[in-house]
TrEMBL record:
Pfam families: HATPase_c_4, SLFN_AlbA_2. Residues 20-136 form the Schlafen AlbA-2 domain. This is Schlafen AlbA-2 domain-containing protein. InterPro entries: RecG_C_sf (IPR038475), Schlafen_AlbA_2_dom (IPR007421), Schlafen_AlbA_2_dom_sf (IPR038461), WH_DNA-bd_sf (IPR036390).
Length: 587
């Protein structure tokens, strides 16, 4: 880290008023804090971070320096070596404002090596995770999930001792075996039904008798919840954008359901319930407008199947259900167990890397008909990719993913990018026909965001980087966007003079001239009010509502958009009204 980068980091922290999820600041005048190992463990178990020693957080992040930087570096290195696995941190001394500041950059640990813990305490007592500006101990379940991720998991192939083959639907089994014998070759035509089902991990031998596996029961069971009561799905529709907030008639929710049955049954029933709680809207498709559900059915099916198939089926996780939460502004689907294997949140649906926690279950569902002629899943790692493509085709925003070790969450914003106003704006550009992905990218850049090849694919659902490069190059050639940087650091920005924005829709930040860059100019009226309120310092959501006169959901939506564009940072819990927000730079 250079002195300039350190100064910029401290400036952002001053805006927030405290540390954040990726940086811990200590004055360290009395030596290395005894709890510093907790922060290093926490950063290593998440996305990495920085420890800065020689800065006084309580005095507006004043640079005070450390007395013996060489000794401090050595002590930090010793702490990193005492962790298991040892953390390979980059430790250096940076001179700033005439003082020596020690900066320790902690890289994230590979997923199959976590949890990083203090060797003398062991993983259960010595593992930490970063939450906002603090470090907390990992729960027993989180530690168990991380340790289990180091090995192949076979919970889905485990026997269900009290079940019998009679607890499985014979018609579904017959259809399954018929497809297997048609598509899997001669071997399955030469063995009995029972032997074939054992080979396919639908049945297994347990204490000299044949019983269903957990995977077989979940796919073909008449009612799997007889044996595993909590392996179901819950659906809750909320009347407001926040859980617990009452609706206009004092209601806590508009629908609250438990959904049981086999996996295909639960998916079909949940889609039916979702449709009952959804509206239909007009979606632009090329030159035409069609009426579709708020969320495309293909997206719902893929997301629900992913949640039920990739959830954690370890015994200590079977008391938890898949949760579906519907709000006026978003749909949230949450399942027990975070990502498994080498997969990272940032690469979901944009790279071919895939990893399966429940391999037997996936293999069975690959040949299980859903009822509409399609199989329940393809087992090709293409589910997230299909979700991205379907949302792009519907002109909707792409999903947001969160991996919290113990849970995996996907959130679908209830917002279409290509609405009537956006289509009118795109038509005003007068630069010839555009592809659906180019239209979506321009609308996103219109909001002030710069796109790289990777973020273009994330936004539009385009999977091939070569196609993304070609479409971005066409936008540059048409004079709609400008290219900045080269090779791996190339970004694309909307040409300011091509926007044609009207002042009542998009206004500059307070105190900025009309010549400011596009990222600052492209703010909606509500976003401008929020940014103006934050110009004097950090505020909570309630304080922003009072300062701007906006309603709760308007402030929340503006903050979400500003955070996505890295214009605002948050400290505190995501859903807490005590969380504080600040701009990421002076305005």
């Amino acid at each position: 880290m250079t002195p300039t980068e350190l100064q910029e980091l401290l400036d952002r922290l001053r805006q927030l008023g405290n540390d954040n999820s990726t940086c811990e600041v200590k004055k360290a005048r009395g030596g290395l804090p005894s709890s510093i190992w907790e922060t290093i463990s926490a950063f290593a178990n998440a996305g990495g971070g920085h420890v800065v020693l020689g800065v006084d957080e309580r005095n507006n992040f004043e640079v005070t320096g450390v007395a013996e930087p060489g000794v401090m570096e050595a002590n930090l290195g010793a702490v990193c070596a005492e962790l298991e696995p040892a953390v390979r941190a980059d430790i250096r001394t940076v001179e700033l404002a005439g003082h020596q500041v020690v900066v320790c950059e902690i890289p994230p640990l590979a997923r199959d090596q976590r949890p990083c813990h203090k060797r003398t305490l062991g993983p259960w007592a010595g593992s930490r995770i970063r939450v906002s500006d603090g470090d907390r101990r990992l729960t027993d379940y989180e530690v168990a999930v991380l340790l289990a991720n180091r090995t192949e998991q076979r919970y889905d192939a485990a026997p269900v001792p009290h079940a019998t083959p009679n607890d499985l639907d014979s018609d579904l089994l017959a259809a399954f075996l018929n497809r297997i014998r048609q598509t899997r070759g001669e071997i399955f035509r030469r063995v009995s039904d029972e032997q074939a089902l054992i080979m396919l991990n639908v049945l297994t031998r347990h204490q000299d008798i044949v019983v269903p596996t957990l995977a077989g029961l979940l796919v073909f069971g008449t009612y799997p919840q007889t044996f595993e009561p909590q392996l179901g799905l819950t659906f809750v529709a909320y009347p407001t954008t926040q859980p617990g907030a009452l609706g206009p008639r004092g209601e806590r929710f508009t629908e609250n359901r438990s959904v049981d049955g086999s996996i295909p049954t639960m998916v079909a029933e949940c889609i039916r319930i979702l449709k009952r709680n959804m509206r239909r809207r007009n979606v632009v498709s090329g030159l035409y407008r069609t009426e579709e559900w708020e969320y495309p059915e293909e997206v719902l099916r893929e997301a629900l199947v992913n949640a039920l198939v990739h959830r954690d089926y370890a015994e200590f996780a079977r008391g938890m259900q898949v949760q579906v939460e519907m709000y006026p502004d978003r749909l949230v689907i949450r399942n027990p167990g975070g990502l498994y294997g080498p997969v990272e949140v940032t690469s979901l649906g944009t790279t071919p890397v895939t990893s399966s926690r429940n391999r037997s279950l996936l293999k069975i569902l690959e040949d299980t008909p859903f009822g509409d002629g399609h199989m329940v899943c393809e087992n090709r790692g293409s589910g997230i990719t299909r979700i991205r493509i379907a949302l792009a085709e519907a002109g909707m925003e792409q999903p947001r993913f969160a991996d919290d070790i113990s849970t995996f969450t996907v959130e679908f914003p209830n917002r279409t990018l290509l609405d009537e106003e956006a289509i009118k704006w795109l038509g005003s550009l007068g630069r010839g026909p555009l592809s659906r992905s180019q239209m979506a990218a321009l609308v996103v850049m219109r909001g002030g965001r710069e796109l790289s090849n990777s973020s273009f694919r994330t936004v539009t659902g385009v999977a091939d980087s070569r196609i993304a490069s070609r479409e971005l190059r066409e936008l540059v050639e048409r004079g709609l966007v400008t290219q900045h940087g080269s090779r791996g650091s190339t970004t694309y920005r909307l040409v300011t003079t091509a926007t044609g924005e009207s002042p009542d829709l998009f206004t500059p930040l307070a105190g900025q001239a009309p010549s400011s860059r596009a990222a600052d100019l492209m703010l909606s009226a509500n976003e401008s009010k929020v940014m103006a309120a934050l110009a004097s310092g950090s505020r909570s959501r309630g304080e922003l509502e009072q300062a701007t006169g906006l309603r709760s959901h308007q402030v929340l939506r503006a903050l979400r958009s500003l955070r996505e564009r890295s214009l605002v940072e948050m400290s505190g819990q995501e859903r807490s009204r005590n969380a504080r927000y600040a701009t990421t730079r002076r305005v």
